[in-house]
Design goal:
Belongs to the DTD family. This protein is of the alpha/beta class. The protein has 2 helices and 8 strands.
Length: 146
Amino acid sequence: MRAVVQRVSEANVKIDGQIVGEISQGFMILLGIHAEDTLEDVAYLVKKITKLRVFEDEVGKMNQSILDVSGSILSISQFTLYAETKKGNRPSFIKAARPEQAIPLYDAFNQQLQAQVPVVTGQFGADMKVGLVNDGPVTIILDTRE
C-alpha cells in the first residue's frame, strides 16, 4: 500500500459538484493499493498513520499525532499512485489492485482508522474533485513495501 498523507487545516471531496465529505484539521490521505497487498498491509499503515507525529505541540515542534490533536481524516482511493512510467509516455497501472481486491482492502483501511479517528471518504472509482489546504505544507509518503 502506498499513502500520500497531507496535514491539512481543511479538506473536502466533491462528486458531481456536491460535497460528499469534508474535514477540518487532520489528514487528507490518497491511498493506492498494490495487487499483492493484504490485511497485514492495512494494519501496518493504520498504525503508522495514527502514530505519525507531525502536528505541532505547545512549543511549535512537530511532536503530536492525529490522535493527540483530535483530528479527522479524509480518505481517497487513488490507484494512480501505482503508475509505472519507465516505458513510453502513457502510464501503466498493472501493479494496482483490481477493484474486487482493492475495495475490501480500502474499506478495511477506513474501518480500522474509524475505530480511532473520525473518517470521511470519497467514493471508490468515482470522478472526484479533492480540495485541501495543506498545513505547513506537510506531506509524507508511506509505502508498506519499503
